[in-house]
Amino acid sequence: MGWALRSAGAADRETIVELRAVVMRPDLERLGRFDPHRVRQRFRDAFRPEQTSVIESDGAFVGCVALRPADSAYWLEHFFLDPRVQGRGIGSAVLGTLLGRTDAEGATVRLNVLQGSDARRLYERHGFTVESEDPVDVFMVRVPGARTVRRPGGVPGAAG
Question: Which domain of life is it from (predicted)?
Fold first, then answer.
């Protein structure tokens, strides 16, 4: 399945807001933290189109990801992929592309993922390690050039 990244614009905001609500709902419900208004409003408040890319497959919106610069590092944020295309390697390919860029800059990448989220395995396969955690979040870091663990068949892990 082919994919492409394009710069996000203000017109993408509500589409991303709705995808965020769908993608995050199972983990937030499991943690007892799902609030349909809050899950949407937090993204609206944090959305920076200039730091966000839309992921398209066959010309259709399937997800988004943001890289926010912060003190000689980047924060990987808002990495959401439509559940209908998860498990097909798009998330892994997108992540690999972004990490190739940050590696070329010699930049560390940080992120946080919800406790128990399947996405944690994807990040670990791409060289992220746990920096700290609390009852809700796992904070992870990846140094430039960290080793990517390949799955059988030579493909880095598929998106979850």
Answer: Bacteria
Helix (H, G, I), strand (E, B) or coil at 70: strand
d(C-alpha 111, C-alpha 156), whole Å: 19
36 is written with which tokens?
Answer: 């349909």
Q: Give pTM, 2 decimals.
A: 0.89
Question: What is the average pLDDT across 24-42?
Answer: 96
159: left (phi over 0), alpha (psi -120 to 50) or beta: beta
Q: Give the CB-side neighbour count of residue 83, counting CA atoms within 13 A.
A: 10
CB 134 within 8 A of CB 66: no
Domains and CATH numbers, the chain: 4-156 (3.40.630.30)
Distance CA 24, CA 83 (A): 11
- Dist. CA 49–CA 69, nearest whole Å: 13
Interatomic CA distance for residues 44 and 67, integer angstroms: 16
Question: What single-letter amino acid sits at 104?
Answer: A
Whether 8 and 52 have beta carbons less than 8 Å apart is answered as yes
The distance in angstroms from the start CA to the end CA of the chain is 15
Mean pLDDT taken over the chain: 93
